[in-house]
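Q&A log
Question type: sequence-to-structure
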Amino acid sequence: MASAVDSFPTGADGGSTGGGTTPRMFRRVLTGSMAGAVLEWYDFAIYGVLAATVLGPLFFPNDNGVTSLLLALATQGLGFVARPLGGIVFGHLGDRFGRKPMLVVTFLMLGTATAAIGLLPTYHDIGITATVLLVLLRLIQGFALGGEFGAAVLLVSEYGEPKRRGFWASWPQAGAPAGTVLATTVITVLSMSTTDAAFESWGWRVAFLLALPLLVIGFWVRRGVEESPVFRKAQAQRAEKPVKKQEKSSIVLALRRPRQVLHGLGQRLGENIAFYIYTTFVIAYATTYFDFDRGDVTLAVTFASVFQFIGMISGGAWSDRVGRKTAMLVPTGVLIAWAPVFFWLVHFESVPMLWLGVCVGAFFHGMLAGPEAAWITELFPTRYRYGGSSLVYQGSSIFAGAPAPFIAVWLIENYGVGSVIAYLVITMAITFVAVATSRESRGVDLDKVEG
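Response status: OK
Response body:
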C-alpha cells in the first residue's frame, strides 16, 4: 500500500486535493481514519454480538428465551435510533467547524460508553436500574457513531485524488467489518478460554472493558490528523465572500434538495439490512432455532467479516474503473439471488454450509458497500456534505439497520423463514432501483459538486 500512497499527487489538481497535500499527510489521514473506524466499530459491534447471546437474560430476564432475545435486540436497535441524531449534530458541527474535531470527539464518547457497559451491575443486582443504564449507554454509543461516517470517510474522500477516490474511501468504510472481526475474535477467544458459566458471569465484561486501551490508541492516532483541504478551501472562499444573513444549518440545506438524500436512503436500505442479517441476526438464528454451537457461529461471522472487508476494498477499487453505479448494481443483483440460497444452506445444520452461506453473502455485501462511501460523498457539495451524508448514512439506520434483526426474528416466529427471504429480496430490489436511477459520479471534482 505504501507504493500506492507514494504516488498520490502532492499538489492541487483542479481543486480536488487542495494545495500543499503531501503523501505523508494523506498517509496520516488514511491511517487515522481507518484505525479510528475499526476501533469505533469494535465498540459498537461488541454489543451487537453479545445482545444475540448473553445480554438478554442478564438485563432482560424472562421465562421465555425468545422474548429475552427480542428485548436485547430491540435495545441494540436503540443505538441505531440515536445515530441519526448524532449525524444531525455532528453533521452540522462538521460542516461548520471542520471534519477533524469530530474524529476525536466521536471516538472518545463511544469508547467511554462501551467501557462503562462492562462495569454495569446486572438486573439481578439492582433490578430495572441496570436495564435503564444499559439503554442510556447504548444511546450514547449510537449518538457518537452517528458522526463517524462524516469524520472518517469525508476526510479521506476530500484528501484523495478523484481517480482513486472509490478505493481510498472504501478503507474507512471497511472499518465496520474490521471492527466486527476484532469484536467476534475477542468473544470467540473468551468463549473458548472460559466455561459458559464464567463467560456469562464475567467473561462478557472483558470484551467491553477492552475499549479502554483501544480508546487510548485511537485518541493517539486521530489527534495528529490534519483538516481536509477541500473544507479549508471552502472556508477560505466563505471568508472572502461573507454573507450578511445567518447561514442555515447544513442539515436544512440537504433536506431542501431531497433527491440526493432519497437516492442515498434507498441505496442504504437493502445494503444496511443485509449487513445485519449476515453479521448479527445469523448468530441468534443459528443458535436459537438450530443446534449450532455459539463459538462455531461467531467464528463463522469472524471469517465472513474478513471476506466482507476484502469485498469492500475490491468494490471500491472496481468502482474507480467501471463507475459507481455498475459496481453497486452487480453485487445488489447477486445478493437478491443469494437470499434464498443462504437460508437453504443454514437448514443443513452443517458448520461448513453455514460458513459458505455467511461468507458469500458477506463478500457481496462488501462489494456493494465499498463504492458506497465515495458515492455518498459525491452526492453533496462541500457546504453541506457532512450533514447530507450523515442524513443518508445514519438516517437509514432507523428503518433499516435498527429493526432488521428484530424484524427477522419476529417474521420467523410468525410467518416462517420464507418471510425473511422476502424481506431481504424486496429491500435489495429497492436498493437496485435507487442506484439505477441515480447519476454517475465517478471522478467528480468535489469542489464543483452542485446541490
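Response note: Confidence is low (pLDDT under 50) at residues 1-19.
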